[in-house]
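Notes to self, DUF2000 domain-containing protein:
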Amino acid sequence: MKQELDKCVLVIDEAMPRGLAANTAAILGITWGRLRPELVGEDVTDAAGAIHPGIIRTPVPVLSGRPETFQTLRRQLAELEFADVAAVDFTDLAQSCRTYGEFIEKMARTGPGELRYLGMALLGPRHQVDRLTGSLPLLR
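result:
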């Protein structure tokens, strides 16, 4: 990831309680770390010699969205103009499942229009991510 060229943002449903919002952000972050390990910096050592695992190399704004925000983002991400922007999403369907197997089964029977998005992480060229999310407020 070229920090000056790429941008990563999280968009979280503004209506969720804090704990669920934090859980959604954590899940999205873990998924990004698996999909894009180059986002994570090298381990660092403090003055006492203790090693601390690397963290993401760039700031990650956490923005606020509404249900219609996520539907709009999904539509825009399908456009050729935003082909270089990658997205990870987390839905109410995923949150309701107790096992990953249950998630797989339920998702296979669910149409895209039936999903309610709780959060989305976007990564791509800064100008494109800004065009998609620049008007969204920070999550409070």
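- The domain at 6-133 is CATH 3.40.1490.10 (Bit1).
- The chain has one domain: 6-133.
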